[in-house]
Write a structure and sequence with these properties.
The protein is α+β, with helices and mostly antiparallel strands and 276 residues long. The chain is built from 5 helices and 15 strands. The longest helix is centred in the middle third of the chain and has 19 residues. It is globular.
């Protein structure tokens, strides 16, 4: 059972169970932890510009405190979300990912997109409404696909210039308006590495908070073509033997799940579970 349950809750100051603090520089951390007991004294020393009830962790309400600038506090640092993926337990990372998405959404919708009036939070639901024209903005998700392409005991992996040194991963891309996810898989693989795929199988999904993606995971068979990397997007792409894989993404990611699942199926090992 998950320790983290998201939800739109109203929090009075004396109802705080947990508080996490976010700024443009990331989350307030102590050591490597971004989820720890925060005293009211520390919160009072921060220039908090917004507060949002996020949900419940271990049954206690969680409040997100948003600050417009990362203030310096002795004994604390600010940490971006992505590195926290490597050191936080999965339920904590899910909560931080959700908090990051809510913070981004709130910052981007402070004013009405139709008439520029300052928006107001709706009571009892996750929405920002315009008091002048009535337009309501809700947090949005951008559907995207991620796919493992295989050819027998070989997997097609690529690396972006943005990846950590030496890391290769599966290919991914955002769904265009009017496009099915399956069509997106074929198009993105063709664009990124000039390869055709077939026999698409959907395997699962994962929220990907960079900043608001929903990753839909697929497995596809190689159908033809020679690898030609897309300039500026793909630094390198290769066929890797299952017996000689490169550095891979973190275990918590759906990309790693797709690779580990195929590896287990080919080698007769226990199948991994998708972190959700």
């Amino acid at each position: 059972m998950s320790r983290w349950e998201p939800g739109c809750i109203d929090l009075a100051a004396d109802a705080i169970g947990h508080a996490i603090v976010h700024s443009p520089a990331g989350f307030l951390t102590r050591g490597e932890k971004a989820f720890f007991p925060l005293s009211l004294d520390v919160l009072k020393r921060l220039p908090i510009s917004g507060q949002y009830g996020l949900g419940y962790f271990d049954g206690l309400p969680v409040m997100l405190c948003e600050v417009e600038a990362a203030a310096e506090l002795e004994g604390y640092t600010w940490q971006a979300l992505r590195p926290l993926m490597l050191c936080a337990e999965h339920d904590v990372f899910k909560m931080l990912g959700y908090a990051s998405q809510i913070a981004t959404w709130a910052a981007h919708h402070r004013f009405c997109g139709r008439c520029a009036t300052p928006t107001r939070a709706l009571k009892g639901q996750r929405g920002l409404s315009c008091p002048a024209c009535g337009l309501t903005q809700y947090p949005r998700l951008s559907p995207s696909m991620i796919v493992l392409v295989t050819r027998g005991d070989e997997v097609l992996l690529a690396r972006s210039p943005r990846f950590a040194p030496g890391v290769y991963s599966t290919m991914a891309g955002f769904v265009e308006p009017g496009e099915s996810v399956e069509a997106c898989v074929r198009r993105e693989v063709r664009e990124e590495v000039a390869v055709e795929v077939q026999n698409l199988r959907y395997l699962g999904s994962q929220s990907w908070p960079y900043p608001h993606s929903l990753m839909l995971g697929f497995h596809a068979d190689y159908a033809g073509g020679e690898i030609i990397c897309q300039p500026d997007e793909i630094e390198d792409a290769r066929w890797f033997s299952l017996n000689n894989l490169p550095l891979l993404p973190p275990k918590q990611s759906i990309s790693r799940y797709l690779i580990d699942l195929y590896l287990a199926q080919r080698l007769g090992l226990p199948e991994p579970l998708l972190p959700n």
